Amino acid sequence: xxxxxxxxxxxxxxxxxxxxxxxxxGGKIKEIGKDLKADGAKIVDAKGKIVxxxxxxxxxxxxxxxxxAKEDFLSGSKAAAAGGFTTVATMPNTKPVVDTxxxxxxxxxxxxxxxxIHVEIIxxxxxxxxGEELAELGDMVQEGAVAxxxxxxxxxxxxxFMNGLDYLHTFDKVIISHEEETSLVEEGVMNEGHRxxxxxxxxxxxxxxxxxxxxxxxxxxxxxxxVHVAHISSGRSVELVREAxxxxxxxxxEVTPQHLTMTDELVNPYDSCTKINPPLREQKDVDAxxxxxxxxxxxxxxxxxxxxAQEEKDRExxxxxxxxxxxxxxxxxxxxxxxHKGKAELPLLISKMTWEPxxxxxxxxxxxxxxxxxxxxxxxxxxxxxxxxxxxxxxxxHSPFVGRRLKGKAVMTIVDGTIVMQDGKVMDxxxxx
Amino acid sequence: xxxxxxxxxxxxxxxxxxxSKEEIRLVLETAKEMKNIIHRDIKKVPALRGKSIVNxxxxxxxxxxxxxxxxxxxxxxxxxxxxxxxxxxxKGESLRDTLYTVEAMxxxxxxxxxxxxxxxxxxxxxxxxxxxxxxxxxxxxxxxxLLDLFTIEQHKGHLEGLKVAILxxxxxxxxxxxxxxxxxxxxxxxHLAGPKTLLPRFLFQEPGIFVHxxxxxxxxxxxxxxxxxxxxxxxxxxxxxxxxxxxxxxxxNEKRLSLAKKDVLVLHPGPMNKGLEIxxxxxxxxxxxxxxxxxxxxxxxxxxxxxxxxxxxxDAVD
Lengths: 433, 318
Hints:
The complex is a heterodimer of chains A (433) and B (318). Chain A has helices at residues 73-82, 101-114, 137-142, 158-169, 194-199, 206-223, 235-246, 257-261, 283-294, 310-313, 330-339, 346-352, 355-361, and strands spanning 2-11, 16-25, 28-33, 42-45, 50-53, 55-60, 85-90, 118-123, 147-149, 175-177, 190-191, 203-204, 227-229, 251-255, 300-301, 376-386, 405-415, 418-422, 425-426. Chain A has 433 residues and is α/β, with parallel strands linked by helices. Chain A folds into 2 domains: 2-51 and 373-426, Urease, subunit C, domain 1, CATH 2.30.40; 54-361, TIM Barrel, CATH 3.20.20.140. The radius of gyration of chain A is 20 Å and the shape is globular. Chain A starts with a strand and ends in a 7-residue tail after the last strand. Chain B folds into 2 domains: 16-141 and 296-317, Rossmann fold (3-Layer(aba) Sandwich), CATH 3.40.50.1370; 142-293, Rossmann fold (3-Layer(aba) Sandwich). Helices cover 39% and strands 14% of the residues of chain B. Chain B is built from 13 helices and 9 strands. Chain B has helices spanning 21-38, 63-74, 95-104, 119-126, 142-156, 174-185, 215-219, 233-236, 243-250, 254-257, 280-283, 290-310, 314-317, and strands at 52-57, 78-83, 109-114, 130-136, 163-167, 189-193, 209-212, 224-227, 265-267. In chain B, the strands form 2 sheets. Chain B has a 5-stranded parallel sheet. In chain B, α1 (21-38) packs across α5, α1 (21-38) crosses α12 and α5 packs across α12.
């Protein structure tokens, strides 16, 4: 039994935003109300803090199996708990690629054995993520795969993608699409723009993303299937999604904290920490994705948590792998650069990290409704801290946010009624209460 | 000139964007003195005696590497060449570890050529010896930019206000980028032209830069024309239809040269594809300073090495 007292409770699903107590029993939300009392319950004082559903990140890379030097389920789960996340969904671009029911099952078992947070599994859309033949999608659905994706690259064949939309219609599952037309980004390592022109670095143009989004939206419209645009970054792509939603196309979209707050002016070729796909764009794109987040065009905020081993990232920019870890910095960046600067309200940000992604995947999560699993984050929006990679739980160290002074952090994470993180410290097997 | 209150000692030479107009001026003035040394019968001064320089080359290069090597040797430094094919680089050693190894041998400067943009800047953050960028991908080739300025000034007597046309594959050219940086610092007007597939899409945003799709427009009344090398693989990558067509539409020949000023100076960083980007009669014609660029390259590199390793003490040079 746990009684969280006196916090500002924000539960977007129920349009709740008021000071209240939250009572947890048997791993479920039992009651929410004023001045609750519960004999024998552990009391958590949340006065001056925000109490929200546990955060959901529908786009992470935990690298297991096959690339455990970058991350594994344990280090990734700890990083998630440290960041206030209670549910994440892992992308299938592991070694081997998660493209069979047997692999989905073994991933689920591994996730359960680690057990700090909930880990959902995204299966590959095509065998080996090669974009040629559909993977055994129905079989993976039966083992609990929540969505399908060939994330990491675009599926060049419109026919294969259309088949995926049609086939998954039966199971009402969404395809998460990495939107960059391959031939336009083959050698590019940063946004194509003024900055890349001056640096002489090959670019990945926004039009590569726009073409891909346009195709997928049109195919979703034609088939009635569901497309989720991964890590949207181009302003024109936001417009395409906005127009499609108006026409009733079943399209959703996600954006990362980095694409909401950083531009390609921050790219320095001596440090690969800014290298991501799609790349950091220009200010007009950053402004457009923020506008898309605010007007509902963009449904979810994800980290695209992509850790790499130190020695892989510490090299020439063009040779370093793309991606950086995000689970432990996401909330701090969003609160510092959006909330505290008056660009986005708390309920909106929380909604994009809880109820909205839960809806897309059909998860029983992302809300504090009575009877729901007691996954809760307690956030101190005023907590000042400095991002230090030595304190990361993730194995990934190269983050462009390292050294940044932030205001706001999750101070407690509760999963199924159990405190798994308190004041930045994640409980391990021996300390788990 | 200005030596008393300005020193480049210990400075990494990564790109001309890091250098002020006055610092570029200092290098050009120092290079004049160095050029005199090259003309001596005995080309050896003790300016860098006891200093050691490593040429760390990850890309094939003859003229730049030899130029740096001779520059170091004329100044009395010990110079060693490491090329990718002969070193542990082919065994998969990381750039960081290679740099650590070179540093541990006690070198004072590392002259580095690498395919990756930013590699020299990365090196400057990893090890203590001063780094001279001898070309990092399509980003920068600062000593080439300086030798182009030096060559132009030797002919024109000044730099400010001159109109320069840089022609050809701007997109992939580190020479073009260093020229642009240096020329703009010195108050020159830079006109870029080539097939649109070889022009960076967003360079026109820079003040002082004019982008043209026809080389004739850029050459109009130009004081200087710098013709860039066309890498033959660009045609295979589909960036222009054929060599023949390139020569006909974008090649610099006598007829097109007549669009420029009467006393136009023709430069080319080499090696040339004669009959492709430049006609032989232009390459060897009266306006060409292409051979002279090579000699000036040695003088500029002597100036750079002296200034960054000693601060340019006059007594060491005389």
